[in-house]
């Protein structure tokens, strides 16, 4: 039985969640007063990513056999490219800043995953990054470099 790319991607994301979980165990859990501790947001993100990875895995198993593709060199290149892209994003985040590095990462990730609609690339990427920036800056009161 062949597996599609969603199947393999879900395991990659779950593996990244496992690594993030082990790193987050070293973050203090207690907050000051009635606030949540510094480990709250990482655990929230790990939980959300794990949930969506499990949903992706479930969806990949429900697809018709005709929609499934074998694990090939192209998929391996995409996964490797995406990993390199995430490492480049992590490296560029601090010196370049959140807004620029995130928009560039978002557009590059969409291109890597096959998106070719110009409107999607030019409007959705800055829109999502801007919305996340506004929520973190004004709602959660978190400084974004």
The percentage of residues in β strands lies in under 5%
What's the number of domains?
2
Which ranges are low-confidence, i.e. pLDDT below 50, for 5 or more consecutive residues? none
**CA distance, first residue to last residue:** 47 Å
Mean pLDDT value: 82
Roughly how many Å is the radius of gyration? 18 Å
Describe the sheet with the most strands.
none
Number of strands: 0
| Percent range of helical residues | over 70%
Order of helices and strands: HHHHH
Taken from the alpha-carbon principal axes, the silhouette is globular
- Going by helix content, strand content and strand pairing, the class is mainly alpha
Number of helices: 5
Assembly status: single chain
């Amino acid at each position: 039985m062949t597996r599609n790319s969603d199947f393999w991607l879900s395991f990659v994301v779950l593996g990244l969640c496992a690594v993030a979980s082990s790193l987050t165990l070293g973050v203090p859990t207690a907050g000051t007063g009635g606030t949540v501790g510094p480990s709250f947001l990482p655990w929230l993100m790990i939980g959300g990513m794990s949930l969506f990875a499990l949903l992706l895995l479930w969806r990949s198993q429900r697809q018709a056999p005709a929609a499934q593709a074998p694990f090939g060199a192209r998929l391996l290149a995409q996964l490797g490219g995406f990993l390199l892209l995430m490492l480049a994003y992590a490296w560029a985040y601090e010196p370049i800043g959140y807004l620029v590095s995130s928009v560039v990462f978002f557009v590059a990730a969409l291109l890597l995953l096959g998106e070719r609609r110009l409107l999607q690339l030019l409007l959705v990427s800055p829109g999502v990054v801007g919305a996340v920036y506004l929520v973190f800056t004004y709602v959660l009161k978190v400084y974004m470099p």
